[in-house]
Structures are given as C-alpha cells and as structure tokens.
Automatic annotation (TrEMBL):
It comes from the Eukaryota. Pfam families: PQ-loop. The chain crosses the membrane at residues 13-33, 93-113. This is PQ loop repeat-containing protein. GO terms for cellular component: membrane. It is found in: Membrane.
C-alpha cells in the first residue's frame, strides 16, 4: 500500500456539482469586473476605500490558508488523479480567482492615487501593503 496515495479522499462529483462550481467561478469574476471597469474608465479613486480592499484581500487569503490546511488530503491527491482533483477543488479555484481579482482594482487604485497625488506619504504606505 502506497502511503502517498490520497485518492481515497477524492469523490466522484455529479454534473450538477461541477456546473455549480463553474457558476461560482464565473460569479467570482463578475463580482469585481464592474469595479475594474469603473476604475479604468474614470481614472479616479473618488469613493474607493483602500481599507475595504485590505479587508477583502485578508479575508480571501485566510480562506485559502484554511482550505489548504483543512483539505490537505484533497490537495495531495492531485498528484495521483488530476481530473478528479479538479472536480474536488473547484470551490478553492473560485477563491483563488477572487484573490487575483481583488488585486487588480487594488493595483489600479494605488496607480491612480500615485497619478493624482504624486508620491505622497499615503501612497508610500499603500505601496508597502501591496
């Protein structure tokens, strides 16, 4: 018996579960798309809260850490059966997409703050977080 084989933790998911996972991924993308477009068009950060970006990023980051620590066997099983693995980690893929999408408007916000205010103390503090 191979002690590195974690495939027993993987489940065969039905088509409904897979479709739901894909819908969650698309919803994650759609949640941040309006903010990204607004920042790109308006090129201003009026009404944007940097603190909300920080809290969102930290929340999603800790969600990712929690998933990797509590679902380690699922992640480890990916080395044995990639197709089944993909089905089982669809929710985690959606969270990673959210984390990436949070960073896009955050980077845009920092860029436009720098563009409008120059190298202010506020900008330099935000750059540290980024």
């Amino acid at each position: 018996e191979n002690s590195d084989d974690f495939t027993c933790y993987l489940k065969d998911l039905g088509i409904i579960a897979i479709i739901s996972g894909v819908i969650v991924m698309l919803g994650s993308f759609a949640a941040y798309l309006p903010q990204i477009i607004k920042l790109k068009i308006k090129k201003t950060v009026d009404g944007i809260s940097i603190d909300s970006f920080h809290l969102s990023a930290y929340g999603v980051y800790f969600q990712i850490c929690n998933y990797y620590t509590t679902q380690f066997p699922l992640i480890a099983a990916c080395q044995n059966n990639l197709q089944k693995c993909f089905q089982n980690i669809l929710p985690e893929i959606a969270v990673v997409i959210m984390y990436i999408l949070i960073s896009i408007p955050y980077a845009q916000t920092i860029y436009y703050i720098n563009l409008n205010e120059g190298k202010s103390v506020f900008f330099l503090k935000q750059l540290k977080y980024f």
